[in-house]
Fold this protein.
Amino acid sequence: AQKVTQAQTEISVVEKEDVTLDCVYETRDTTYYLFWYKQPPSGELVFLIRRNSFDEQNEISGRYSWNFQKSTSSFNFTITASQVVDSAVYFCALSEVPGNTPLVFGKGTRLSVIA
Amino acid sequence: EAGVAQSPRYKIIEKRQSVAFWCNPISGHATLYWYQQILGQGPKLLIQFQNNGVVDDSQLPKDRFSAERLKGVDSTLKIQPAKLEDSAVYLCASSRVPGAGEDYEQYFGPGTRLTVT
């Protein structure tokens, strides 16, 4: 069975600090996909990134970066120079085939960025 | 492109009452999902449709929950009768199927927040 663990329930940082959100996953599939979603106070889940199990290259998008390590089954998310607008709940998720199989979510990490 | 639409946004009912939620997916998205998100947890799949057929309803409490997707577009999720533990946000998501384009991410609607008293 697939499982996603986000051990950090809540994190609070001061604006401009860097912050890393941890994600550890379990799956028996050899091919799988990992995701990060952001859920702001409005409640809608916003897609941030998708990674497949064959691509361990780290990715950077503006202030966001992701570190995928298959050896430790981790897919961590770093926000550099955090801003108040980054305050949200962040979910890590796993699926077998995007578009064909559902997402298995972690419990989420609530990030509060204080001005 | 319009996003996933859901209504109502909020609903308060008493236990043992019935309630229905509506979802209109993104145009062209064959796959539709209903997720339940209890406060403080991640979303959990209730049911998955592809076109108007059910792909996975293994986690749907079928004694009280039902869902349909007539004509393979809009979908409704019904709870009858509701229990206190059904208080949650019900999220609808849609996606293309693989091979139907490069973008096959799941896009989520704003959700319906249900409170059962």
The longest strand of chain A covers residues 88-95. The interface with chain B takes residues 4, 35, 37, 42-47, 50, 91, 93, 97-100, 102-108 of chain A (CB under 8 Å).
